[in-house]
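Figure 3 (text version): structure tokens given as input.
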């Protein structure tokens, strides 16, 4: 097997040793630090794979990342974008305030369906589904802290106790 040499700078060695020795780190970061340290000392890839329990591609990618961007780039994962939140904290606050307000005329209590209709009628929220309303209320304990805020309705809504336990 072909072994590409890797020589770390003194600063990178210190960073890698501190990553290996102290602090709370992700297992991937510690493994990458071990891989870089072993490659710097000239340990064969087969031994690294056997001792660390990693595959050959981990070693190759870690080496390539170090050569491309240095130790910091090789040790840490690149931030991933992820799916952006559709409803921000302002919408959560509006929904919480709506759930804590007085129910509409003709209803004794708020139901998820009533909250959905009222939220859609508000200017800042726009189209929102019943399930999204339920999930957002589940995350906001102040919205369901009172006993009579959201209750089960005949059409399958969720009660305050159901939201807390779900």
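Below: residues designed for each position.
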């Amino acid at each position: 097997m072909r072994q590409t040499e890797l020589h770390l700078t003194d600063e990178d060695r210190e960073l890698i040793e501190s990553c290996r020795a102290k602090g709370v780190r992700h297992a991937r970061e510690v493994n990458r630090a071990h891989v870089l340290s072993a490659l710097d000392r000239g340990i064969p890839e087969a031994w690294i794979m056997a001792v660390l329990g990693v595959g050959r591609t981990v070693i190759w990618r870690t080496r390539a990342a170090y050569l491309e961007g240095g130790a910091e780039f090789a040790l840490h994962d690149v931030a991933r974008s992820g799916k952006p939140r559709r409803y921000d904290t302002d919408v959560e606050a509006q929904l919480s305030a709506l759930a804590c307000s007085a129910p509409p005329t003709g209803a004794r209590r708020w139901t998820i369906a009533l909250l959905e209709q009222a939220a859609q009628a508000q200017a800042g929220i726009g189209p929102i589904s019943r399930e999204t309303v339920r999930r957002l209320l589940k995350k906001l304990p102040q919205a369901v802290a009172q006993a009579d805020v959201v209750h089960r309705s005949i059409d399958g809504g969720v009660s305050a106790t159901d939201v807390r336990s779900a």
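The chain has two domains: 10-75, 89-165.
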